[in-house]
Amino acid sequence: MQKLVAIKGMNDILPPESARWEWLEDKVRALMARYAYRNMRTPIVEPTPLFVRGLGEVTDIVEKEMYSFEDRLNGEQLTLRPEATAGVVRAVVEHSMLYDGGKRLYYMGPMFRHERPQRGRYRQFHQIGAEALGFPGAHADAELILLAHALWQELGLQDVRLELNSLGQPEERRAHRAALIQYLEQHQDQLDEDARRRLYSNPLRILDTKNPAMQAMVEGAPRLMDFLGEASLAHFEGVKAILEANGVAWRINPRLVRGMDYYNLTVFEFITDRLGSQGTICGGGRYDYLIEQIGGKPAPAVGWAIGVERVLELLKEQGVAAPEAAADAYAVVPDPAQLPRVMAHLQQLRALGVMVQMHAPTAAGEGMGSMKSQFKKADASGARFALVFGADEWARGAVTVKPLREAGEQAERPLDSLADWAATLQSSR
C-alpha cells in the first residue's frame, strides 16, 4: 500500500514544536486584549470573486498563487483563502458590523498559496492579523504599528526594522502611474520578463523587484511621494509624529508598495535581515476603498498580518526560548489495581489547576512497568514532581511527592491534603 504523506509545503506541527506556537498565540491574545482588539474567525474557503475583486486581478496572488476549484455540487468557484483581510471585510459587510461605529478585530489561522516552498515560505502558512475598520485618522495607522512593535518587545525579538511609505490616493497614483510607465518605456531593454508583463497592468509592482540587474534603473524611477497632495502628506506626517512620540524608529522606503491592490496612504513592513530573502515578518497598511469594493458602504480601514512561521524562525535564530510545555507532576503507579483510586485523586488535582501526567502502559498487556522505569519516564517527561502512589503510601493514606527539577527532599503527604499542596504549587509557578 502506498505510504500517504503530507502535501509538499503543508507541514505538520508536532509536539514539542506546537508548544512554541501556543506560547506565541497566548502572547498575542493577551496583547490584543490590552489594545481592545477582539477575535474573529472566518471560513478557510471563500468565493473566488472575493479575492479577484479585493486583491486585484493582476496581482501575483490572484494570477499565479491561489488554490481555486469548482464546487462539484453547484459549480460555484471557490478558493482556499490566500490572505485574511478580504474575508474579514466580507464578514464585516455581510453582518453590518460597522452600523454602530468602528471595530478593532484580530484573527489567527492558516492561509494557502501555491508557491515554491522554502525557508519561511510554505504553501500552507499561518498568519496573525489585526484590522481597525471605520477609523480614518493617522492615529489608527500608528496604533496598529505600535501594536506590532509591542509584540516584538513582548517576544524579545531584536534586529527588526520598520519601513514606511505612502501610496497616496487613487488620483495621485494615477498621475504617478502615467509618469512611471513613461519612464519604464524608456528602459524597456532593462526590464525582465515579469516586469514587461506588468508594465501596463501593474507597473507599481515593478518597483518592488528583487532582480539585481534592475535595481539601478528602478532607483531612478519617479517616486510616488513626489505626487502626493497636501492631505496625503499630512496623514503620513501624522503617522510619523505618533511613532516618534513613542520612540519607534522607522525609515522611508519609497519602493515599498505591498502585494495587494487594495492599499492606499500608509503602507509598512517590519523586516529582519536574519531570514534571508524572506525577511518581512509583518506587513500592512491602509485600505480605505476595500469595504466599498466588496459591496459595503464606504468606510476607512487599516490592518496588518504577521507570518507566524517567520516569527518563530526568527525567535530560533535569536535563541529566544519558549517555555517548555511540561506537566507539574507525573504520577508513578506501581500497582495497576490501584488505578481507579489514583485517577480519582489526579482528577481532583486537575480540577484545582495542576497539570498531571499519569504513567500508563503503551501496549496492551504490558503492565505498568517497574518503579525504576516509571521514574525514568517521569524524569524524561519534564515534570517538576513525581507523585508516588505505592503500596506503603496507600497503607498510610498518603502519597510521596518527589522533586524532579528543583531542590528539596521528597516528602510524604496525606492524600486528604493534596488540595493544600496544589495551592502551594500554583503560587510557586
Multimer state: single chain
Mean pLDDT: 92
Largest sheet: 8 strands, mixed
Give the number of DSSP strands. Answer: 16
CATH topology label of the largest domain = BirA Bifunctional Protein, domain 2
Q: Give me the Rg, rounded.
A: 28 Å
Instruction: Supply the CATH architecture of the largest domain.
Output: 2-Layer Sandwich
Tell me the number of helical segments per DSSP (H or I, 4 or more residues long): 15
Strand content: 15-25%
CATH class of the largest domain equals Alpha Beta
Main location: cytoplasm
Catalytic activity: tRNA(His) + L-histidine + ATP = L-histidyl-tRNA(His) + AMP + diphosphate + H(+)
Binding site for L-histidine: 83-85, 113, 127, 131, 258, 262-263
Protein name: Histidine--tRNA ligase
Task: Kindly list the characteristics that best describe this protein.
429 residues; alpha+beta; Rossmann fold; eight-stranded mixed sheet; 16 strands; HisRS/HisZ; ATP binding; Anticodon-bd
Describe the model.
The protein has 429 residues and is of the alpha+beta class. It folds into 2 domains: 17-168 and 228-317, Bira Bifunctional Protein, Domain 2 (BirA Bifunctional Protein, domain 2, 2-Layer Sandwich), CATH 3.30.930; 329-424, 3-Layer(aba) Sandwich (Rossmann fold). Helix content is 36%, strand content 20%. The strands form 3 sheets. Strands 1-5-6-11-10-9-7-8 form an 8-stranded mixed β-sheet. A 5-stranded mixed β-sheet has the order 13-12-14-15-16, sandwiched between helices. Strand 3 and strand 4 form a beta hairpin. The longest helix has 18 residues, at 17-34.
